[in-house]
Structures are given as structure tokens and as C-alpha cells.
Design goal:
Number of domains: 2
Helix content: 40-55%
Structural class: alpha/beta
Shape: globular
Number of helices: 11
CATH architecture of the largest domain: 3-Layer(aba) Sandwich
Strand content: 15-25%
Number of strands: 10
Largest sheet: 5 strands, mixed
CATH superfamily of the largest domain: Periplasmic binding protein-like II
Length: about 240
């Protein structure tokens, strides 16, 4: 029995993923910026960082369940608050890092009446609207709040195609599976398959938060400081993010 238990424990240990490099969990919408920052950091210091991307909600839950993350870049403050209350953040490392904006998009080439407001497009809309799931995805939560602010949520909520992250909402529009979508401007700017119809008036600013996670080592701290530097931030700003 003791031998069996020892073998079982050894199996679990060797089966767990081990990251020699710091692990950054980052919102899906920061994919290109985070990758560029990691590349610039490597060129400057010789260090390397592992990147994992998903909706901020999914990443925060992974951290709370013990994922070996050392840094977290969240697309809103709500999920950073969630980790802070559970004691997962390194004290005094949480910062408001970047900002973004919401835009209304349609498939490229789709015939759309030009130069209308988002409210005008959505008021006469009868198709499907792609957006992040407002129950937990930051982009969806920002979008729902904006549509409520504009008095449109009751009208469009039955037309919503909710997605697990904002990049999937973009994909639905790119593939023509949804006639309209609401995504971050930086995501729309990267796509060659959608057109931006109009900005969305936001109920609250779209802000990204950055923090070190409890147990972060010296390499993670070094990368954190790089992200805060002008060079680190430029990796995101060059893609349309704002400070």
C-alpha cells in the first residue's frame, strides 16, 4: 500500500507542468502586445517568459486554483479585485496599465449604410451580435454596460452571440457568422476581415490592470519592471493601446 501511494504521488508530481521561466497570464486581447514585450525583453536581457492567453475571468480562476502564474494582465479591475480579496497579489504591485476602446464591427465587404452612429446601426438591427459573454468576459461586461448606458440592451440582448473571449467574437464576424460585433479597437485594427462602423460610447473606461502574483520570483519581478518601462509599454502602444 505504501509503495502504491508513493508511486501514485510520484506520477502526479512528474505529470504536473513545470515552467522554468516566469509565467504571464494575460487577457486574450493583449496577445500581440504581450508577445512583442516578451520578445523585446529577451533581446534586452536575455531572459524569457512563458505566455498563456484566455479571458481574464478564466485566468483569474486558474490563479485562484493554484496555477503557477507569476504575473497577471487583466482586461478589467473586477478580476484583479477577485484575486486581491483572495490574497493572491503581491502587495503594492497592482497598477492600472493600459486602456482601450470598444468599436462596432461588420464583415469586410458587407453592404452597410455608411457614417451612422452605433445606436443607429443597432436600433434597426435584426441579425446576430457577437460579443464577449457579459456574465464573465471583461469585453462583454464593458459592452453590456455601454449598451445599457445607450438604452439599447433590452433591444439587442436576445440577438447576442456570447463568446468565451473577445477574440472569438471577432472570429464570428470575420467568418460572417454574425452580422455585427462589438470588440476592442485594437482587435479590430489587427483584422483584415472586418470593417469598423462606429466607436461605442463606453459607460466606464476600458482599463487593463497588471500585478505580480504571490510567489513571483526575481525573473518575474524583472519582467514586471520591464513592462512598466517606456520600452515595455511601447510594445502595446504601437498596436493602438493607450497608457
Amino acid at each position: 500500500m505504501k509503495l502504491t501511494l508513493a508511486c501514485f504521488c510520484l506520477f502526479i508530481f512528474i505529470s504536473l507542468p513545470v515552467w522554468a521561466d516566469p509565467l504571464l497570464l494575460a487577457a486574450a486581447s493583449t496577445s500581440e502586445g504581450a508577445s512583442a514585450a516578451i520578445k523585446a525583453y529577451g533581446k534586452k536581457t536575455g531572459g524569457s517568459v512563458t505566455l498563456s492567453l484566455a479571458a481574464s475571468s478564466a485566468l483569474a480562476r486558474q490563479i485562484a486554483e493554484g496555477a503557477p502564474a507569476q504575473l497577471f494582465l487583466s482586461a478589467n479591475s473586477r478580476w484583479m479585485d477577485y484575486l486581491d480579496k483572495k490574497g493572491w497579489l503581491v502587495k503594492n504591485t497592482r497598477v492600472e496599465y493600459l486602456s482601450n476602446h470598444l468599436v462596432l464591427i461588420a464583415p469586410l465587404g458587407q453592404t452597410i449604410k455608411p457614417k451612422q452612429s452605433a445606436k443607429a446601426y443597432l436600433s434597426n438591427f435584426s441579425g446576430r451580435l457577437a460579443m464577449g459573454d457579459p456574465s464573465h468576459v471583461p469585453a462583454g461586461q464593458y459592452t453590456k454596460a455601454a449598451l445599457e448606458y445607450a438604452g439599447l440592451w433590452e433591444q439587442v440582448q436576445t440577438k447576442v452571440a456570447p463568446t468565451a473571449n473577445v477574440r472569438l467574437a471577432l472570429l464570428l464576424v470575420e467568418q460572417g457568422e454574425c452580422d455585427l460585433g462589438i470588440v476592442y479597437k485594437t482587435d479590430a485594427d489587427l483584422s483584415k476581415k472586418v470593417q469598423i462602423l462606429s466607436p461605442i460610447a463606453e459607460a466606464s473606461p476600458v482599463r487593463y490592470s497588471l500585478a505580480l502574483i504571490k510567489g513571483a520570483g526575481k525573473d518575474a519581478q524583472s519582467f514586471y519592471q520591464f513592462l512598466l518601462s517606456p520600452q515595455g509599454k511601447q510594445s502595446f502602444i504601437s498596436l493602438g493601446f493607450e497608457p
